[in-house]
Each structure stands twice: as C-alpha cells, then as structure tokens.
Amino acid sequence: MHKVLKTVVDLFRRRNDDLITFDQDRYTRSINLKRHCFGEFSMANAQANAIMEDQSQVEVASQYALYLGVYDGHGGVEASLYVLNNLFNNLLRFAHENDDPIADILRNAVADTENGFLDYVENNIGLIRTIGKVGSCCLAGVLWNGVLYIANLGDSRAVIGSVVNKRVSAVQLTTDHNCNDPVIREELISLHPGDPTIVMEQNGWRVKGISMVSRSIGDAYLKRPQFLLPTYEEVPHPFDRGVLSAEPEMLTRVIEATDKFLIFASDGLWELMTNDEAVQIVHKNPRKGIAKRLVTTALVEAARRRGITYRAMKTATPGKETCVGRRTFHDDISVIVVFLDNKTPLFKKHLLDLSYRGSTNGSQPSAFALSGLTATESHSFTGDLKKSFIKRFKGSTSKGRSSQTEHLRHLYMGRIDSDESSQTESSVNSTG
User: Fold this and answer.
1) Given the DSSP bridges, would you call strands 54-60 and 39-46 parallel, antiparallel or unpaired?
2) pLDDT digit string (tens) for 217-240?
3) Could you tell me the superkingdom of the organism this chain comes from (predicted)?
C-alpha cells in the first residue's frame, strides 16, 4: 500500500476505534441525530466528576421554536439540576404572562431561576451544610423565527459555524466570564472599588481566590453574606456584599444564510480544543453522531496530554480522589450541535413537541406541547403563547381542572418528571 494512503487508512481506523471506545465508555452518552423545525441536532456528554455536574437540554417545538440549554454545575449537582428543571418552564410562564420582547423574557426567566434557587438554599442550608457553595454556569438559547436569543452566565460557550465559499469560520457568540481573562478581572475591579482582594491568583485568577467564573446561578455564599458559614474556609477575606453576579450577558443574532450550525458546550470541551478546531470537525464530518465526535476528540486529547490512550483512560473512576481519577484527566463535558438548514420551519415534515436531556438517551413530551406554538401561522412568540394559555385556562376551576391544564401547572412549578429520576433531582425541583 502506498505510504500516504496507508497513513490515511490508519488515521481513519484510529478515529473509528475512538468512536467505538466512546460507545463502550460507561461515563458517556449521546443522541446522534434528531430533527427540529429548522434542521437537525446532536447531543453528547462525558462524566468526569464523581456525580455528573453538567446538565443539558433541547426543547423542540413542533413549529417555529427551539430551546437549548447547557448548565455546568460546580460544587455539587443541585444548582445545575435546578436550572434544568425550572429555567425553561419559567421562560414559558413569563411568555404567557406578558408581551415583552423575547430577550427580556429570557433575562427575566434567568433572574427568577436564580432567586428560586437562592430561596431553596435559604430553606435547606440547615439540613445541607454545603448547599451554599453549589452553583452553575448557565448558557440558554431560544431560536425563534430565524433569530437566536442567548443568555449566558459563566464560561460555557456558544460558537456558530459560518460557511462562505466553502470555507468555514468560527464566530464566538458569548463571552467567557472567566477571571483568567484580563477583561473580566478589570470588570470585577471596576465593580468593587476599594477591594484589593476581589481577584486573587490562586491556581489561576479567581474571584476572592475561590471562583474562576464571575457570573453564575447559585454560589449563595459569594452573593449573600448571611450564607457565609465558618465551615466555608475557602473565603480568605470577609466581604459585606456579593462578589459574584447573576446578571446574564444577552445576545441577539439574526441567522444568516451563511450560518450553518451552532455549538453550545460547557468549558470542558473548550479546555481541550479551540473554536476553529470544533467548527472544522463539524464541517468536515457526517452529521450523524457529530456531537459524539466532538466529545470523543476532546477525550482523546485529554488522554494524550497525560501520555495514555482514551481506551486506557476510560477505565478510570469518576472523581479526583486519586491521581488517576477521571476528573484529573478532564472536566465534565456537554455538547449540543444544531444544524441551521432553514430560517423558516419545515412545515412539510411533522414534528412532535419533544424534550431531550443529556442525562438520558430518549425523549419525553416537552412543555412546548402546551405552549400554543403549533399554529399554522406565526405572529409573535408571546402572542401565540398568551392566546393559547388564556384559552386553556378559561372556564377551568380548582375542582375541575383538566388533566392537560394540571400537567401544565406542574410543568411550570418545576415538577416535570425525567426519564432518569433520582432523590437528588427531586430534592432540587421547585416546590412552588
């Protein structure tokens, strides 16, 4: 065999072997390819922590809309699970209650989710001493009538792949709210004048020497001083007001014909590849399983940096209690890849309103099913929702509410059941 041809064959074989290893890995999951009204999408994740702290979701409306979320938890899983179970439902509730622009509705939904989780912390800190230290990054997006709306807190990242003259380029849509960025450090210093310890170098730059991210959901002990307990020895200097923010960075982008796909991913991916590398992988490979391919490429790189193969690394136990724990190789990784085939919905292809979560392989009914976004003509996101909900609630009573309306109420209160229930997840669902 010709030397160059043999090299190509060997490379192809190794890549296929790595994908097989991903499928054999106990701590990975993927959804290879599903439809949404503007095209197709793929999801994948890999666990590194003792408990998977990343959460992700895709909410597919039968027409007009798509919701994406990646929630990178830290210090525990309670905050990211709370965001998973409440943010999307809060979004629909705010859309029902008023006619604000979508960006404002998304911002308000994030704020309500933050307040709900901090209330949860306040009510449970006596029972769960560490709950005040749990937080989550939050990357949430709504695709509606050819426009993408994003709210971002933390260092998860949204990147769009644009193709011009068959050449793909990466456009980073969000800012990484990470203290290793000097711009973020300057922002913190300007917000906290007179506090010389607002950013400290402690295994990298961190807020108060503790948090690498400057914005998050949760992290109550860095936002509300009443949660600062003596057991939280991580705080090297006292403070009298919050040092982390829950104000999301908001972005709106009209999807152009050159915008071909979108990548939403936690920082576990971006620590192991660049934006350009990620969009090249998506652009040059088959759609089916593309999110899995991105995560696999990251895992191969994580193993390579430690001088071993992915096949050897996959035997490591999650966590970082030992020098060979999975967390010593890489962070939790969550990836969603969304192909943007059409600015307008694919009316001829019937879709169900479905919800996909990174923690499960299947789907379940989405709250979109009750949102009114199934009409044959589009007017406005809030208008369609409001009309639908008024119609559904009209004439119902507390004694005789329909099963569909009752299900909607539970959805709004964060009680949606997942395919993979656990005591931890139900403990952080909103209780109204």
Assistant:
1) unpaired
2) 999 989 886 775 544 656 667 677
3) Eukaryota
The closest of 241, 224, 251, 68 to 149, measured between CA atoms, is: 251
Instruction: Work out the end-to-end distance of the chain between its first and last CA atoms, rounded to an integer number of angstroms.
Output: 68
The pair of structure tokens assigned to 388 is 């639908």
3-state secondary structure of 79: helix
Domain boundaries, the chain: 3-178+213-427
CA distance 38 to 347: 10
- Give just the sign of the alpha carbon dihedral 388, 391, 396, 398: positive
Structure token pair of residue 350: 């019937």
Residue 156: what residue type?
A: S
pLDDT tens digits, 35-67: 998 899 999 999 999 999 999 999 999 888 999
Kindly report the CATH number that applies to the domain delimited by 3-178+213-427.
Answer: 3.60.40.10
Q: Which long-range contacts (CB under 8 A, 24 or more apart) does 351-355 make?
A: 351/35, 351/36, 351/37, 351/60, 351/61, 351/62, 351/63, 352/60, 352/62, 353/60, 353/61, 353/62, 354/34, 354/59, 354/60, 355/57, 355/58, 355/59, 355/60, 355/416
Half-sphere exposure (Cβ direction) of 336: Cα atoms closer than 13 Å: 32
Measured CA to CA, the distance from residue 417 to residue 429 in angstroms comes to: 10
